[in-house]
Amino acid sequence: MSACGFHVIATCRIKSEAEILALKNELFPENDNIDILPVDVSSYESCSSLINKVTQKYGVISVLINNAGITADSSFKKMSLDQWQSVVSCNLDSMFNMSKLVFSPMCVQGWGRIINISSINAQKGQFGQANYAASKAGILGFTKSLAAEGASSGVTVNSVSPGYIATRMVMKLPDDIKEYIVSGIPVGRFGRPDEIAHTIKFIVDENSGFLTGSNIAVNGGQHMF
Ligand code: CAA
User: Ion transport: present as a keyword of the record (predicted)?
Assistant: First the structure.
């Protein structure tokens, strides 16, 4: 997004200033168009304080990418209430919190893009992910509903459903499970984060104003429907 001329506010879980500076130097060295700010997306108050800070400095937010997500995989028989609540709260409540604060000003402005990151496992289900799949499937219904409300105000709302991407979340899976997963991906490899970024760039584009309420699956052919 920075390369597209936007000033980007990336967020991370609450960390000290020193840790945030180290993260910025590691991920975006010498890029003045990106700030990293701390937020707990599962807390409405924390999101509200973040959005106040950002809008005071930069004005109305034009693009919101809801991509915070965690896993707490477990077969359902063993899944604890905390594993359920923490995942739903981070992955799904966050979407309410952030969109609630950003959507109305976008509508008044008459232009906006909201992109919600779902998952292949929202669409196909996954052993050990009743919590994660439920949260990611909730995103799909939320997206279509908000798209209907934003359409007449120039605000598009879409979702992207990545397959297995070579992120820390996926790479921490045991090797035998990773090998099994790759064997089921027709493209023959995990996806790359930049391939998801490329899809988001397409949705954000000025010429994508007729694309709304859609879900784009980017999964190497692992799940076609
Ligand atoms: N399908 C069917 N049965 C399975 C299974 C599967 N995928 N995985 C395990 N089982 C069976 C085992 O064979 C075993 O059966 P028996 O009792 O008859 O021997 C039983 O289930 C074991 O059950 P447990 O509750 O003891 O399972 P576990 O503790 O060994 O492991 C798990 C469960 C942690 C969920 C593990 O299967 C796992 O890590 N699976 C991968 C989950 C996954 O794909 N996560 C994606 C993370 S990345 C992400 O989410 C990003 C994204 O959007 C794609």
Answer: no
